[in-house]
Amino acid sequence: MESKIETNELLDQLPPHLKQYIKPQNYEQYTPINQAVWRYVMRKNVDYLAKVAHESYLGGLKKTGISINEIPSMYGMNRILKEIGWAAVAVDGFIPPNAFMEFQAYKVLVIASDIRQLENIEYTPAPDIIHEGAGHAPIIASPDYAEYLRRFGEVGAKAISSEHDIDMYEAVRELSILKEAEGISQELINAAEARVEELQNKKVKPSEISLIRNLHWWTVEYGMVGTVENPKIYGAGLLSSIGESVWCMKDEVKKIPYSIDAAYQDFDITKPQPQLYVTPDFAYLQEVLEEFANTMAVRKGGWRGLKKLIKSKQLGTIEISTGLQISGHFSRMIKNDDNEVVYFETEGETALSYREKEVIGHGILRHKKGFRSPLGKLKGINLAIENMGPRDLQAYNFYDGKQIAFEFESGITVQGLNVTGIRNLRGELMLIQFTDCTVKYKNEVLFSPEMGDFDMAVGKEIVSAFAGAADYHSFNLVTHTSSSETIRPQLSKIEIELNALYKEVRTIRNSEEIDATKLQQVFKTLKQNHQTDWLLPLEIYELIEQTDSGFSEEVLRHLLNLKQQRPKVAHLIEGGLALLETKEIIN
User: Fold this and answer.
1) In which band, very low, low, confident or very high, does the pLDDT at 344 lie, cut at 50, 70 and 90?
2) What's the rounded Cα separation, in Å, for the pair 205 and 65?
3) Distance between CA 292 and CA 289 in Å, rounded?
4) Residue 491's Cα: distance from chain center in Å?
5) Which is more confidently placed, 157 or 545?
6) What is the pLDDT of residue 1?
7) Closest CA relative to residue 244, chosen from 133, 137, 131, 93
8) Which helix (DSSP H) or strand (DSSP E) does residue 68 occupy?
9) Which residue of 76, 85, 231, 587 sits 20 to 30 Å from the alpha carbon of 516, by its own alpha carbon?
10) Residue 218: which residues within 8 A CB-CB, separation 6 or more?
11) Which residues contact 213 (CB under 8 A, 6 or more apart)?
12) CA 419 centroid distance within chain
């Protein structure tokens, strides 16, 4: 297996705040049972999905380097993904939604490198390499879909979250980890489920990130394409689940024409979906995405956008009409009677940018304790400051090195020594520096000389508001620590022995000739010490069904007995036996 990291320029270009989530794949941690789970799911999926998946699926498996017989190496995938302009990275389970989206904007697939346990072979709420690698990766071979995924990442990375979203993210992450880990008490799982249910039932106004996450769920994760009468699967959650890929095609699952309404349809990650959305084609996904983007603060700005940032308590950015961007934790705003923002404040480290580049001298070192500024037009003057030319500024006494006093239409007054101004590319003033400055609103002093220099943002209005920093270099964003981490299983002595048996069968399958004697020895040990295991006898039967009639009949009887003894996995055994009739499709 490839151990050398293959370079991919897309990964080299990732900013540090995204690189902090990347983990080594640690390929050697995959057990022989993990490999068998991958192989079973992939063989079942390819056999079935050849009939019901979008036409790009099977070809996409080959283009993206996804093997049916073994878990893919991230390095091998990157070598092949590079040819279609994408890359992949391994992460530890769920990562924050905005980070996930931003990876997509950089055309990088985020792949949870863990793999589901045998007990959860049909479906797991936790992200795993089957879901991410075999679900997401193949469809990006379709150029229209790949562009939708990239564009979705760009839009989604700007979506503003809420405190509730952060709580929900941590709760779902913890539940998915507990459900996929071995040896976890049902009491702990029940408590985690109760926490998720409590948060899901909490009546809160949906944030932008929760709405766009819904769109992501009903398209990228659980989307169907074509017509309501004859839909095809393209969503990774369906492509990677041998249970739901069958279930979703049944009449019990309502099929709905895809529209922006999907943003307001919540989902339960722990249960099969009762309804799914069908897009006529991948191009239509882009139309709905742009329709949704038009409702977001990143395009609408205004007091509502700033209010979202204040309530989120997360790092965010506003852009005002001169193009000046203020990034920080917003804490206050004042509106006029027309609901226009006439004043805003941040608290803590703040940075000013223009066109996503920090304004020289206006990073967090200058604005350690926040930033505040009035906005709008001056009282009695029809011309906004940003629209004033040099003669206009002189006419209204805006001279560098001169004392000045003026009043905004809102009633906010500014009085101080005008030091200098900074202009944007259009030549408009976008920032004015004052010393010995006092800013008042009614009877409140908003800024006083002892607070230092006063930097006033120049702009009539807020034209955009979005999550994150305008220039990610302005802040130390490599600070992520999750409240939960994936639990790595410690194998017992009996599990180590069972894995050794799986490994031996895998070695025999990969050899030039099938050693029936060794397989009989493996089967004997399996029956003695691992009577309930169902997947390994299936693999043995696959190898000898046409070569040794006596032995194959014995293994088949064992499998049929297991179907009686373990009714919950009977359909999985039946499905494995059915695969032997369709080898030409899946090999």
Assistant:
1) very high
2) 42
3) 5
4) 31
5) 157
6) 40
7) 131
8) none
9) 587
10) 258, 262, 265, 267, 276, 277
11) 97, 156
12) 45
